[in-house]
User: Fold this.
Amino acid sequence: MRTFLRVLLALAIVAVIGLLLFIFIPPQTTEPHEDLAAGWQPEEGAGEYVMRLADCAACHTAEDGVQFAGGRPINSPLGVIYSANITPDDETGIGDYSLDEFRAALYDGVREDGAHLYPAMPYDNYRFLTEEDVRALYLYFTTEVEPVSNPVPEPELGFPFDQRWALRAWKWVGLPEAERDVGGPGRYDDEQLNRGAYIVEGPGHCSACHSPRTQTFTQAGFTAEDPEFLTGGEIDGWTAPGLRGPDSPPQTWSGEELARVLGTGRNAHASVVGEMALVVEDSLQYLTAEDMQAVVAYLRHIGTDGPAPEDDADVPDEAEQVRAVDELVENATAAMLSTADPDMPLGARLYLDNCSACHMVDGRGADEVFPELDGSFLVTAAEPTGLIHMILEGDELPSTEERPMRLRMPGFGWRLSDAEVAELASFVRNAWSNDAGSVTAGMVADLREEHEGDQAAVE
Ligand code: HEC
Ligand code: HEC
Ligand code: HEC
Assistant:
């Protein structure tokens, strides 16, 4: 984080030198990706559907606020930025945006008055939207959404980050080429893969959370051709797992299990938490079956960079053997937890007292109700922040059309000390077949403090 701040500071200093140029030359905006006839009309419902794909509602709706009226606080490492009112209100919303101005906001992060938008709005990914989708969105927001008057607070950022013109420097390094190879003739010789690539790389902006960030806070990859694309990132204290590579969810689960977790927030092994629960609830649950299949096919394709593995693949012998060894190890943990041994280590005892009622001594939980902790990507992530978060604060499963019931996991932060949370987290990260680094009380204290800071900023 320190290096990151220093780099941004350095960028800001460079920006000061070009101050006048920066302030007075109007920003360039990207041309439409294709020419559509002036009278082009989307199919009915198309605009709302693209809004779901792009998840505009999640950020632009405040808790208990009117949909799209903005004002939701977005935590960035530099401070809090409030989302804009994007209802068609003339005074406080986007009522007087032209189509070109709307496209400039989505492609270039430029506001109607020419000011630069903070990349808390994922225009670095929306740059890939097709012109049809931009137009459908524009018509949706200007003709189907009701105007709501709601002035939104200014960002709470210290100098120099409160200077919007300095964002121009960031955009030089941070924005990918807007031209793209899918949607047109296509990168893949396969319509389904091209559609999946479009959704994931463009409107779905999965990369905003699932790709690492460079030192200048740029996404370290924007398309499957970039090696670091979707290899795992961090968002507001939660770890977003890598979605590529042999041990990632898309390669470990069958296509059907992956589609279930994306569409309903849970499958037999796992459930989504934190930011991902919002993505499922506000966006992915609305995907058509066809689009969901495309996303799944693409994610499974890019992990291997070859044909997707068969769903009911024969498990190779070697994997079978590894599994057999794992079972023994798993049983060792379960057996230890089943004894009332007074010498049981502290972490195991805390697990037994606080967690095993729901997640069971074998760490297998209950299908689609209590997720498995054995083999959970969140539990064994390189950064244990997600696990610590869960123990401190708990979380709620998203409610979806197909699975409406919200299940809640309680938080334990109020009754466990930092040292106890660390012991417990370290135990869970190494119980059963899990094998991940241990957690220190200092990490827990940092996260607790960060969270209290967030609460204070929001209040
Ligand atoms: C990850 C959060 C996020 C998502 C998703 C998101 N936005 Fe934004 N958007 C923001 C934030 C934050 C701002 C304000 C940024 C600033 O003040 O610099 C903003 C600003 C805007 C603005 C500028 C409005 C103005 O005049 O101030 C427009 C237009 C906009 N968003 C449209 C959209 C649309 C359309 C979508 C869906 C396709 C969308 N946004 C999705 C976070 C988001
Ligand atoms: C706003 C940030 C954000 C966005 C956008 C996002 N994710 Fe996630 N995702 C997360 C976080 C954080 C986690 C880890 C928490 C969890 O496991 O539920 C996660 C977890 C996942 C998981 C593993 C679920 C599990 O239970 O192990 C999958 C699969 C996934 N995301 C796919 C996607 C896809 C596909 C997209 C784009 C359509 C996407 N995500 C967009 C933040 C995000
Ligand atoms: C009352 C039942 C209950 C108890 C007790 C409980 N949990 Fe949970 N846990 C849940 C539910 C329900 C979820 C799914 C929540 C969600 O997805 O938002 C969950 C999810 C999790 C996850 C996320 C797993 C994943 O892959 O997404 C972790 C990690 C976790 N619990 C750890 C613990 C630990 C450690 C304890 C003991 C301190 C504990 N839980 C106690 C019910 C419980």
